[in-house]
Specification:
oxidoreductase activity; (-)-trans-carveol dehydrogenase; Rossmann fold; seven-stranded parallel sheet; EC 1.1.1.n4; NAD; NAD(P)-bd_dom_sf; 43% helix
Amino acid sequence: MGKLDGKVALITGAARGQGRSHAELFAQEGADIIAVDLCAQVDTVAYPMATPDDLEQTVKLVEKHGRRIVARQADVRDFEAMKRVVAEGVAELGRLDFVLANAGIMPIIGDAAHTMAAWHDAIDIMLTGVFNTVEAAIPTLLEQDQGGAIVITSSSAGLKVGGARLSTVNRGSLGYAAAKHGVVGLMRAWANALAERNIRVNTVHPTGVNSPMVVNEQFARYTTEHPEFGQTMQNLPPSPLVEPIDISRAMLYLCSEDGRYVTGITLSVDAGLVVG
């Protein structure tokens, strides 16, 4: 018997990385999945982003655990598209219990990172996109009147921007920090507003994660050229990148009965980076 038997989770950025890991763990624990990903390149992002084939692989992993999945290519920047995804997922799977607003980008590398477009892409995807995802889901959670949980993926950079240098700060990185801080404000507002309906809202703050957003040729070259950037990401217990499953287990805790009295918190999974 799983911790999430009979439940349904909406997960954005589900084609690979943390989102795929969340989908697989939640399916393993008995949940059906509504999986969303852009599956296309954003011009200000230097590394290759997820593809339709990546999303199909997530589908196979969820189905391997005997769970159902509704997978859609959609842009979290498009509120109407997110409403359609929620409606289609609920129509097929019957309900909605959890929202994992996970979609994100890192537009901090290359010439495009210095453009205004990088700022707008960061804010539009990781702040407005979170707003669109959660606002698209809230009416269903309220109509069901059975509680639920919302977890937003922020970042250690949503709590602490340490050691910023002129050599590494650009419009993309500023947009990233602003968005990751901004979702904490959204979380706290929703946590207060939705508490009376037993809907819990929290943020999770990872350090660097062993996922395609960080583990790619472009990012490796950037950190080699800018060693001062790596110095801002020193975990307290010396450790490599955390694994996606480490973040997924935090998500599971906050959504399951184990976290039934936990709301309005910023949960760091960062090997002590924020307090270092």
